Amino acid sequence: MKKIKITLITAFIAVNVLSYSNVKSISKNTEAITPSSNNDKVVVGLNVGNKAPELNFRSPDGKIITLSSLKGKIVLIDFWASWCRPCRMENPNIVNAYLKFKDKNFKHGKGFTIYSVSLDKNKSAWINAIKKDNMFWENHVSDLGGWHSQPAQIYGIRSIPSNLLISGDGIIIAKNLRGQRLYEVLNYLIEK
Question: What residue spans of 102-161 are helical by DSSP H?
């Protein structure tokens, strides 16, 4: 058990180091987060600078929520699950970021929201985790497919927690922002 904990902690640190280097380069290279000023066709893909693929899935109450319905806002697409301990540990940070930035004006969007994609299989566990973790934004979706869920397949998700930050035009700005890095990138993107 101790080896598993050490392995998980090491993996978490490695992911944060990679996230730091990704965001550090983004904050220095504004081209990576600035929409193209010419009429080049935007490529749909999973890399920074690509247009994020559309998602169209059901909320806990059965309502279809599309990612494109959030156009105009900075959106954190957050992949998580109720059974994922690292996800649940990160949820308070995401809730605080939502509260701090939801009404801010950004260079590439007005306001901030979260599109939460659950990799749960159990609907009750999913709903209970949303309530328990005070994830009170409206954009929660899942197809209850677990690791085989369509959203995870579309975005190539192999581990959670995992997230992508997109501009108001749906362009991927950054990936896997956790802890303080999420705040730093959002602060950098605020319109001054």
Answer: 123-132, 150-154
Contact assessment for residue 142 and residue 118, using Cβ atoms and an 8 Å cutoff = yes
In whole angstroms, give the CA distance from residue 23 to residue 19: 6
Q: What is the dihedral of CA 95, 23, 68, 63, to 10 degrees?
A: -30
Cis peptide before 53 (omega within 30 of 0): no
pTM over 0.85: no
> Domain-by-domain residue ranges, the chain?
2-189
Strands (E) in 19-111, as ranges, are 56-58, 64-66, 74-80, 105-106, 109-110
106: which 2 tokens?
């950004």
Which tens digit of pLDDT belongs to each residue from 68-125? 999 999 999 999 999 999 999 999 999 999 999 999 999 989 999 999 999 999 999 9
Asked if 19 and 25 count as a contact pair (C-beta separation under 8 A), the reply is: no
* Candidates 3.40.30.10, 3.40.630.30, 3.40.50.10090, 3.30.830.10; CATH matching 2-189: 3.40.30.10
